[in-house]
Design a protein that fits this description.
The protein is α+β, with helices and mostly antiparallel strands. 14% of the residues lie in helices and 35% in strands. Strands 6-5-4-3-7 form a 5-stranded antiparallel sheet, with helices on one face. Strands 1-2 form a two-stranded parallel ribbon.
């Protein structure tokens, strides 16, 4: 067989992939045809932090009570929260999401 008569196959293309934590109720991902989705549980603290960030982002403009890791409770109106920098303010008192233990 001559080289011109042999058929060559293109190398297989890799599909885009994404990881989803199956234990995180709020995690959502869209799957496209041919996409690979990997179900990988994250550590509890990382999952809790992501859920907290989503809850804080959804609570902007509402009255909240934040239990901080120091034990202090910050009460008031959540006037701002930036999900990217993970910082916000409750009645002009700034905080970082890393300081928050829970939204009560």
């Amino acid at each position: 067989m001559s080289p011109s008569s042999t058929s060559r196959r293109d190398p297989p293309t890799t599909s885009p992939s994404s990881e989803v934590d199956p234990l995180d109720d709020g995690a959502q991902t869209e799957c496209a045809l041919g996409e690979v989705t990997v179900l990988r549980p994250e550590p509890f603290e990382k999952r809790r932090h992501k859920q907290l960030v989503r809850a804080l982002f959804a609570s902007v403009g509402k009255d909240v009570a934040l239990r901080l890791k120091s034990g202090k409770i910050l009460r008031g109106s959540l006037s701002a929260f930036d999900a990217e920098s993970q910082t916000g303010s409750v009645d002009d008192a700034p905080f970082a999401a890393a300081q928050v233990l829970e939204l009560v």
